[in-house]
Amino acid sequence: EVQLVESGGGLVQPGGSLRLSCAASEFTFRSYSMNWVRQAPGKGLEWVSYISGSSSTTWYADSVKGRFTISRDNAKSSLYLQMNSLRAEDTAVYYCGRAGGSYRIDYWGRGTLVTVSS
Amino acid sequence: QSALTQPASVSGSPGQSITVSCTGTNSDVGGHNYVSWYQQHPGKAPKLMIYEVSNRPSGVSNRFSGSTSGNTASLTISGLQAEDEADYYCSSYRTSNSYVFGTGTRVTVL
Hints:
The complex is a heterodimer of chains A (118) and B (110). With 118 residues, chain A is mostly beta strands.
């Protein structure tokens, strides 16, 4: 069964940085594009970023463009999200999700909570 | 990047059918056949229920079905069951390389 396990969340001050990781297993990681999606407390889902299997293509939501960087290490079957210049409104559970084709996210991790507060 | 519009809540009795709508634009829902629907129970990760407008992943009940008309996508749950009580989100590819989610709908089984 496909597994995605996020880590790296925690409490960070406004303006600070954090790096999230997502460890993938039970599928050929390099063959799949991946996404980050977040959910603020009590709110809906918000797509954050996308990366192709070869890392040649990356997309970002306007709300994080210029502050967040998505990357991956196919040798380690790992996905990353480097988050800089964090703001209170970035507080959310961050999920990694596998892009299963046709712009669907067919598997999701359990998420990691990022709290931006002084 | 504005979200797709969904009703805040929809309810129905066990055994009934309900429909959740998802309204976008011709840059997303109306312009691509890449609409997906996700179910999310409280405190859990989302689960893919429908992709490419009307396709069900393996293991998803055939009580769930999807369709589109113009810029509006719809998710229908027939034979409503207690376990269907959850939040539902639509999603679409949006022209110019992005994904967009809907505002979310709380489905309540009366």
